[in-house]
Structures are given as C-alpha cells and as structure tokens.
Amino acid sequence: MSVRALTPVLAEKARVELNENPNTLKDDLQNIKDWLAKQPHLNARIDDQWLVGFLRGCKFSLERTKEKLDLYYSVRTTAPELFRIKHTDPLFDEILGLGSFVILPKPPRPDAPMTSIIRPGKYDPAKYDILDILSATNVLMRILLVDDDNATVAGGQSIIDLEGVTMAHFLQMTPVTMKKMVVFGQDASPMRMKGTHYMNTPPGFETIFNAIKSLLNEKNRNRLYVHNKNYEELYKHIPKDVLPAEYGGNAGTIDDISEYWRNKVKKYDSWLQEDYQYGTIESKRPGKPKTAEDMFGVEGSFRKLDVD
C-alpha cells in the first residue's frame, strides 16, 4: 500500500473527524478497487494515494466513496470543457501566468485547509472564457488531491477577489456554467469546502452570489463570507504569514507562487499525461446513461437569471 504517512496532527484530525483507521485502510482501499473493477462504465485511477483522498472526502463511508468516484468521473465525461486544457498546452501556461488562480503552498496552520486565491478580474473576458480558467485550474486541483495531505484531510478554502471584475466577466457565469461549477466542486470533488471569502465585491455581485448560494447545500452556504475591503476580517480566518504580498502577507508574490506551481506541474508531467485517459463510458453504464442535461440542466426562474 503506497499512501504517505500523515503528520501526527493530521493523523489525529483524520481519526477524529474522518474516521480514518490505519489498521483498516488497506482493506478499505481494496474494497474500492474491487468495486471499481466490476463497473463496466468506469475507467478510474486506482493508485492508493488517489483513492485515499476520496475515502477521506467521504469520511470513510465506502458507499459514499463509490458514489463520489462515479460522479467525479461522470462529470469528466459529461462536462469535458471543465478539463479541456492540458498542462502541455501553451494556453495552460498563459493562464497560469495571469495569476487568476493560485493555491498557496503553505496552509495557515499544520492542521488547516489549503487556501486558493481566485482573481477573475486578472483575465480579459474578451480573450478568455471562464471555462478556460476553470479547466486550467482543474490541472492544479488534481495535483493537490494526490500531493497534499492538508487538502485531503482538512479540505480547502478560497479567497475570491473580485477587484477588476466587469459585467463581461459576470455574463460568462451562465446558469449552466454555475451549475457545473457547483456539481463538480461541491458534489463530485473529494476535497471538502471549508470556507469561501469574497473580497472587493463590485456592483452586480449580489445577483451572482445569490444564484450560486441557491445551488449550495446548507453546510456550504454557511461557509460563505463577504469581507469586501475589510482585510482585517480576512486575516482572522487566514493569517498574513501564509498570504502573498498582494494581500499584505509575507509569503512571496502571486508570481512567485505561480512559478512554484509551474515546477510542481513539471514534476507531475507523466502522472497528468496518464490521468487524461480516465472517465466514464456512459454507453456501458448499467441502467440509464448519464447525460449533461440530467446532471446540469437548470430549471425554473434560475434559468432566467438576469444580471443588471
């Protein structure tokens, strides 16, 4: 079994909060692998470190882990636009260089969630689509799920900085795009969402915020924080020492962190190359195949979302 040993503080957190038991971990992993082998429609990674991330995300419920794995790979097949940019594409490096999305290399505390910073105002909506940004982001998120124990044990939190966001950015957030983002981030991804912090909110923000909020479950709705320009409030949740200089911190600059991720992506080149093959073959799914309409169709007034 090739699973990294957790630090003592994370091991205790995993035991108390996630029901992780080192004595049964090997059997749990084998159970999931045996199940995957019997699914004609599922083509999934079976390396231990990857699968343990799903077990942790489901608090070691084997049934929930199976459901989440199925959903994760179904999204990869029914929403391929969320994964269309590969790490070898020039566009990937271009988007990484924009600094629209970075994951901070260091957690706020040894047992804290990993923190990402999302700055949509840093990309030109006339040149890039939000789906390009999400697709490039998902390359980093896949690495995080196999590389970072804080992410799989403690979860993730985000700072969404809306400085410089325009109406053109908001118009890219169609109801279907928002639904895909929420289904993937909340339901399919094994990384638990522990908080989203909105900064520098512009006019029109409330409409998008309320639309996304309506798609979230109650637990995640209660983990949304709107700080606008109140950085002191942000620091109560995410201390300065792990934040980049652009946010009053001393953890380097956004460019420094982007370079850190460039090097990390190079290290994971062969892993990522292999990973592109995985997904579902819906025609082989027992019962009814899943479609994009089934998974991401939007109904009622939400379909008519209007940004004023």
Cα separation of the termini? 54 Å
* Percent range for β-strand residues: 5-15%
Show unreliable segments.
Answer: 300-308
Major beta-sheet overview:
5 strands, mixed
Helix fraction, binned, reads 40-55%
User: What structural class do helix, strand and pairing data support?
Assistant: alpha/beta
Rg (C-alpha, Å): 19 Å
How many strands? 7
Order of helices and strands: HHEHHHEEHHEHHEHHEHHHEHH
Give the neighbour order of strands across the main sheet.
Answer: 2-3-4-5-6
Mean pLDDT: 93
Count of helical regions:
16
Shape: globular
How do you describe this structure in short?
The chain is an alpha/beta fold and 308 residues long.
Structure write-up:
By secondary structure, the chain is of the alpha/beta class. It is 50% helix and 10% strand. The chain contains 16 helices and seven strands. It has helices at residues 8-18, 25-37, 48-57, 62-78, 90-98, 130-147, 149-153, 167-172, 175-188, 205-215, 218-221, 231-237, 254-267, 269-275, 292-296, 300-303, and strands at 42-43, 101-103, 114-118, 156-161, 193-199, 224-228, 279-280. The strands form two sheets. Strands 2-3-4-5-6 form a five-stranded mixed β-sheet, sandwiched between helices. The protein has a two-stranded antiparallel sheet with strand order 1-7. Helix 2 (25-37) packs across helix 3 (48-57) and helix 4 (62-78) packs antiparallel against helix 9 (175-188). The longest helix has 18 residues, at 130-147. The radius of gyration is 19 Å and the shape is globular.
